[in-house]
Amino acid sequence: AQSVAQPEDQVNVAEGNPLTVKCTYSVSGNPYPFWYVQYPNRGLQFLLKYITGDNLVKGSYGFEAEFNKSQTSFHLKKPSALVSDSALYFCAVSANTGNQFYFGTGTSLTVIP
Amino acid sequence: GAVVSQHPSWVICKSGTSVKIECRSLDFQATTMFWYRQFPKQSLMLMATSNEGSKATYEQGVEKDKFLINHASLTLSTLTVTSAHPEDSSFYICSARGEPRYNSPLHFGNGTRLTVT
Q: Fewer CB within 10 Å, N side or C side of chain A?
């Protein structure tokens, strides 16, 4: 079965510190992982996606993600967290075996001033 | 580019009435759109895949007669919640792929908060 795991429901980090939000997946075919952010009562906003050949992908708002093929992971990172980064983050994976996206359960990030 | 517009943003209706939610791709054509439901502090639950010009594909456990989906054009899909009940109160979100490629991201509407009284 296809699955995307975000092992942490909640991540707290102090403003200015680096942050990591974890994502691992098990998807058949060639996986294409993505990160999305959701603010309260809003839809999901695309942050970044895996680009073939790039193990470190840079995206919007200073976020980046580290792709690890052997560990089937795509962890979201940011060198210096801002209070405005506080939101709900979703990892999603698409595959070349169908039309679906598979979503993780989300991680709530709180950046403490 | 790749903007998805969803309307209304919120709606309150009485039990037993029907509510229609519209999802439009503004600057691209979408042969496929996806409808999700999200409960508070939870992940997205895929309800159905809307296909332009054909019947929607519903996920297991989703009542197709209750959640009517119509994808009449390449830029518009609608979700109608028929005979709404309080348990249908939720946050509904539509999405579409900007390009028909596996590494093309989904783009989401801003969601519709439905409250059934």
A: N
pLDDT in tens, B60-107: 999 999 999 999 899 999 999 999 999 999 999 999 987 777 788 899
Does B115 contact chain A (CB < 8 Å)? no
Binary contact (A44, B102; C-beta < 8 A): no
Using CB atoms, pick whichever of B6, B107, B111 lies closest to residue A41: B111
pLDDT tens track for B15-44: 999 999 999 999 888 888 999 999 877 789
List chain B residues with CB under 8 Å of A30. 102
Contact A43 B93 (CB under 8 A): yes
Residue B84 Cα to chain centre, angstroms: 15
